[in-house]
Amino acid sequence: MREKILAIIEKNSRIDIAELAVMLGEEEIEVANCIAAMQEEGIICGYHTLIDWDKTNIEKVSAIIEVRVTPQRGQGFDTIAERIYKYPEVNSVYLISGGYDIMVTLEGKSLKEVAGFVSDKLSTLDSVLSTATHFILKKYKDHGTVLTKKYTDERLKYTP
Amino acid sequence: MRDFIADKIKDVKPSGIRKFFDIVSEMQDAISLGVGEPDFDTPWHIRDEGIYSLEKGRTFYTSNAGLKDLKIEICNYIKRKQNLDYDYNKQVLVTVGGSEAIDVALRCMINPGDEVIIPEPCYVSYVPCTTMADGVPVTINLKNENNFRLTAGELLDAITDKTKILILAFPNNPTGAIMEREDLEAIAKVCIEKDIFVISDEIYSELSYGDKPHVSIAAIEGMKERTLMINGFSKAYAMTGWRLGYAVGPEALIKQMIKMHQFAIMCAPTTSQYAAIEALRNGDSDVEMMREAYNQRRRYLIHAFKEMGLPCFEPKGAFYVFPCIKEFGMTSDEFAIKLLEEQKVAVVPGTAFGDCGEGFLRISYAYSIDDLKVAIGRLKIFVEGLRK
Question: Is A160 in contact with B15 (Cβ distance < 8 A)?
Fold first, then answer.
């Protein structure tokens, strides 16, 4: 049941518990308990809203930053990752395989603000060797949802 | 000028949903629950293979019976699902949708006057295709109290010394009924005893929501040699527009069917055949995902009808529910038209699938939950209005 609940609420976290229970053929109380347990266990970490900021009048700049670091003895990458994720403007921090070590995504009000964060805060951290900042120009798809096109049902209204 | 049109086609009734098309085409904001095809797009990796085949210039005819690789994958699939062995070279014909397979099979089997037993409600083409092949359709009215399954007793009552074929279509369009192994065993016994051939239209085989997976009647002992299994890619892989299906069965029949297919069609579309190979090789998880989504909507609708007080047996297959509207004292047609005009919700009257569909509606759940919610909300207002 957990897997099925997660698959549905990952796409629609606002779904009503009673409706979810009907769709899964389970009792409402069991579904509610299951969700509560998953929150408790930290499997469900939050409920967010997917927003296409480009369609609003609010200016926002997003960037992906590749960071190369020197891991620290006995702690690997965890300490430096923590130093980075504590900044509130940082959206996500991933340790990754490949040509660099840590990928940071962040959001700022302007290009200048993001640039300032990278040059003043991120680059000056002791174990950071180098950074490469990529500004996002356009979001086509985010969290499995296509942002640029709206679905239209082109099927015939009646087919046998 | 002479009348150049053949009498037998003039006698075929046009589809019962034609007039609904005319009404709905005038409407701006009608919500349709009348569609018999998936709302999902064909999974991208399958479309991509179709595109790739075009890029490679694979725009030629294939052999009449279909691409060898596709026929092999079809046989592998049937082995995987039904544990049946077919010879890809002699027992498979790739067709233009399941529809062509139905037509060609009937024309290859019927001698004038042969009777074909067709349990109704059912898909719209069986009766006209039988008539056009000079056969005599003998319909059985399936019953709500049997959950619209065919019983051995009903079959026996319909058999005469002219009966040749039984068309079995489960999971069923429009009722959503399924036949389980025990049900099929009873039917198989009669077919063997009375020497009847079965055309088994299993186009909805992947959309079965019971505890056990779909069983083909061909998998019942003694039936493989007297069954033509028809299936296709439309429903399972959301590939309706690709027009691709297949028939699998006894070599003697397939041999004749290939001949007719060769003269009528030449071969099924090449691009679709390449895409279908990909579907069979790597499409299981897509099917699983879609089946789960349909199942959730199915439960949602059954629950909604229960709350509305509309009697409805629990359908366990396809993507339709078949609620009963007899309490309102209207025909299915009247109900469907009034519902469309007043609440702008399009459903198909049960009578489009046979006279015994009177008093029922076919409601499709090949729609997103959000669309279903809006439509069900309107249906509820309509039903409550009628009850006042």
Answer: yes
- Decide if A149 touches B, using CB distance below 8 A: no
Sorted by where each starts, the structural domains of chain B and their CATH numbers stand as: 7-42+285-387 (3.90.1150.10), 44-282 (3.40.640.10)
End-to-end CA gap in chain A: 35
Q: CB neighbours (10 Å) of residue B64?
A: 16
Mean pLDDT of chain B: 96
A72 in the same domain as A124: yes
Do residues A22 and A64 share a domain?
Answer: no
**What is the per-residue pLDDT for B17?**
82
Q: Are residues A82 and A19 in the same domain?
A: no
Q: Are the Cβ atoms of B35 and A24 closer than 8 angstroms?
A: no
Range of the domain at A18: 2-40
pLDDT band at B238 (very low <50, low <70, confident <90, very high): very high
Per the structure, the count of domains in chain A is: 2
Phi, psi of B339 (to 5 degrees): -65, -40
A19 touches chain B (CB under 8 A): yes
* Confidence band for A86, pLDDT divided at 50, 70 and 90: very high
Q: Does A10 touch chain B (CB under 8 A)?
A: no
| pTM for this predicted structure | 0.94
Task: List the 25-44 stretch of A: residues with Cβ below 8 A of B.
Answer: 25
Nearest CA in chain A to B124: A160
Residue B16 has pLDDT above 80, yes or no: no
CA distances from A3 to A7, A29, B43, B311 (A): 6, 17, 22, 32
User: Closest chain A residue to B351 measured between Cα atoms?
Assistant: A160
> Residues A5, B380, B170, CA angle at the centre, nearest 5°?
65
A69 and A94 share one domain: yes
How far does chain B reach from its first CA to its final CA, in angstroms?
Answer: 57
Assess contact for A107 and A61: CB atoms under 8 A. Answer: yes
Find the CATH number of the domain harbouring A79. 3.30.70.920
Same domain, A15 and A89: no
Asked if B28 contacts B271 with a C-beta cutoff of 8 angstroms, the reply is no
Handedness of CA B264, B267, B270, B276 (dihedral sign): positive
ipTM score: 0.86
d(CA B12, CA B131) in angstroms, rounded, equals 8
Residues of B in contact with A4 (CB under 8 A): 292
**Do both A11 and A75 map to the same domain?**
no
